[in-house]
Give the backbone structure.
Amino acid sequence: MKKILVTFFLLTALRLIAFSQTPDNTAKQWADSVFNSLNDDQRIAQLMVLRESSYTKDGPVYYDSAITDAIQKYNIGGIVLFQGSPVKQANFINYFQSIAKTPLMVCIDGEWGLGMRFDSVAPLNHQMTLGAIHDSALIYQYGKLVGRQCKRMGIQVNFAPVVDINNNPNNPVINDRSFGEDKYKVARFGIAYMKGLQDEGILACAKHFPGHGDVNVDSHLDLPVINKTMAQLDSLELYPFKRMFAAGVGSVMIAHLYIPAIDSTPNTATSLSKKNVTGLLREKLHFNGLTFTDALGMKGVAKFFPDGQIAAQSLIAGNDMLCLPEDIPSCIAKIREAIDSNKLSWNDIYAKCKKVLAYKYMYGIAHVKPIDTYNLTNDLNKGIGEMNKIIAENAITVLNNKDKDFFPLTDENKKIAYLGIGIDSANTFANRLKNDLKADAFYFNYKEDAGRIATMVELIKNRYNVVVIGVHHYNRYPANQFGISSFALDLAHQIQHPDSNRDNKTIIYDFGNPYAIKNFCDAKNLVACYEDDSITQNAAADILEG
């Protein structure tokens, strides 16, 4: 036993050493050499990563002309990929790298894989679904899969994992992007995901420091306020970040939050606060890796620091990299003004630039190769179905089980109805019940009013002794009851309500964000499924059928 423990601790120590994010002498020498080839404006521009695409109602829009211009005029540090097709994105990356004086750092905001952004790649499960399982080894494999996707796509940085503790169920921006409300699980799973990414040579990014979980406002729209003491923050919000730093995460993203306990300067977000970035993150928590600001165009900060002021203030605070600055010339001008007024120094800029260049070397950017587009989309989809299946099988949670008719449910001596709420035709779950259990199917979408409710309730309660209710296609975020109509809720409650004259057994399968289950807590039989894809629906049917 003693030998096993010694081996375990030795392997753990070796793993921590492997995750050291300190550039070695070779990285520093390459960084110094490249640094010496740049002028001062280019050294500032190396700290900027620009948006490469976005999405409109007409589909993805690519900013290839603007990126080309920024590379050729300013020698920017990197790009962030968003919506688009993998092959088209790959061709752009190959072109951008071919014209760049200094190789670009290619980033993506791919929390649940590249399918979160790319149009022909299947998404992996959300982090809250992962939070419902127990085995962190699965999370590590999930991280490795995402890492392999990034590597195949010529990406060096993934802005993941989210290690915010979602301790506010009404959170309009984090919510199911979090592993959940348990700080220990958030930390453990965040480390597992990070190690999976970094074992594949992809720089992970813990976000959103110092913790975005307890907010009621979306920082894309306004500046959220968190009124907690430092003791409260230290015991909860900061816990996963401290664990991630100790485990060797290479980078961290700084949130746009107003937290008076950290910095009470009016309208100063944590991303722009020297007390937060330098004082708390660097000096107190001893994080020496790369920092990225959250997007600088987000209204939570942009309305208080217009034009290039936000870029200058971000660097004054102590950040390394500026995410999605909106006007490069204005940013460079304001940064130069800050240097002239002694709020920044050229030595600050030089140190940050050398650090960014050293990280580029560490993550292979010094020797980038063109992306091979042959079979690219198929390669990016490899393993996703298998991963989602095993996660669904381990995540689906039976919350209430008062009746013995379920698990397994058979059609023996039973007339079974399936009520699909939020849909108007059969999906995978409905077809499984129709084919396997001879269930009759009924549908009620969120656009319908009360007109059908009374007759549907009477019909189902009179003809069937077992009713399976599936709740589908509702929104991911909590506004307006997740988009579940009051009529749909009324129908579900009437179907499951006990009737003295009839003995109907009902079970509710909730397919989507589990916070929506607050609408069905009185259900005698209740299952949380977390996602609403065909793989999850098949796994849910398997569980129902035993």
